[in-house]
Amino acid sequence: MWNNVIFSDEKTFKSYSNGRRRVYRPPGTRYDERYCNKYKQSGRFSVNVWGWVSSRGRGICAIVEERLNANVYRRLLEELMLPSVIPVFGERNFIFQQDNCPVHNARLVSRYLEAQGVNVLPWPSRSPDLNVIENVWGEMQKYIYQNDFRPRNPLELQEKIVEAWETVTPGYMRQLVCFHASSTTECDRCKWCNDKILIS
């Protein structure tokens, strides 16, 4: 059941918002300073995080300061994922979801999860929109960059990320997972996805 799935992924938050903004301007004023945002070409930085969510609410959102490789990811699973998931779901009562990036599929990681008896959900290729945590990242991004927020240093951005994470409520997650569960039956028949997600 989807209620027992742990949805996980990484996300990079930048010191500036690179999303599109809708601007209403008179014809012929595309490059007018009044309708342009200025960004510094230097001094940019970013913060990488890893987190998990489920139908029961948000799990953890951890700052990842190292370059993510198989060793770092395995340590992350051991030190952060399992200790935070097991108290909520029990040792064998959850299904772990991760995408198919090379780090996640590394032999070191696969062997560790197998040794721990973690049930890993088979995941179709090229399907980020099926992971409900992407919706969470999107809402967090809106929250962080509202009112044209521009952090002066990585610590300010980290604090804003934590603040945004804490706005994710159990009610929002229940609604998100419920919508996801009702939409995946259609995904099995979509043209671009040859794989199927099977939950017993």
TrEMBL record:
Coiled-coil region: none
Domain Tc1-like transposase DDE residues, every copy: 5-148
Sample GO molecular function, one term: nucleic acid binding
Q: What Gene3D superfamilies does the record tag this protein with? A: Ribonuclease H-like superfamily/Ribonuclease H (3.30.420.10)
Instruction: Identify this protein by name.
Output: Tc1-like transposase DDE domain-containing protein
What is the source species? Zophobas morio
